[in-house]
């Protein structure tokens, strides 16, 4: 079977997909780490505003550490943490 060399566009899409997957994994790692440091009272009172504060803090910490901040989404943080709380409740 003769395989053709991938086009530049195909290679770019593969690279983007890998980079996006890495960013998603890094974001999930950040969210899980934050969640693991939340106590029961934090979880009981958790709001979207708390998630917005978390995103602001994470962007600041990334910059202070010399990392390019990810495109953190407060709604994604909120939804993911609520989902983790629901899983823990089961």
Q: Taking Cα atoms only, what radius of gyration do you get, to the nearest Å?
A: 18 Å
Instruction: Report the structural category.
Output: mainly alpha
Label the overall shape.
globular
Please indicate the percent range of residues in DSSP E strands (runs of 2 or more): under 5%
Biggest sheet character = none
Q: Would you tell me the overall average pLDDT?
A: 83
SSE ordering: HHHH
Helix count, DSSP H or I runs of 4 or more residues: 4
DSSP E strands, number: 0
Beginning-to-end CA distance, first to last residue:
51 Å
What portion of residues is helical? over 70%
Task: Indicate the multimeric state.
Answer: single chain
Low-confidence stretches: none
């Amino acid at each position: 079977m003769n395989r053709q060399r991938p086009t530049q566009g195909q290679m770019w899409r593969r690279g983007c997909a890998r980079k996006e997957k890495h960013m998603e994994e890094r974001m999930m790692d950040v969210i899980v780490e934050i969640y693991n440091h939340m106590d029961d009272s934090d979880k009981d009172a958790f709001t979207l505003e708390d998630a917005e504060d978390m995103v602001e803090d994470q962007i600041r910490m990334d910059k202070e550490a010399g990392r390019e901040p990810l495109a953190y989404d407060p709604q994604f943080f909120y939804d993911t943490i609520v989902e983790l709380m629901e899983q823990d409740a089961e």
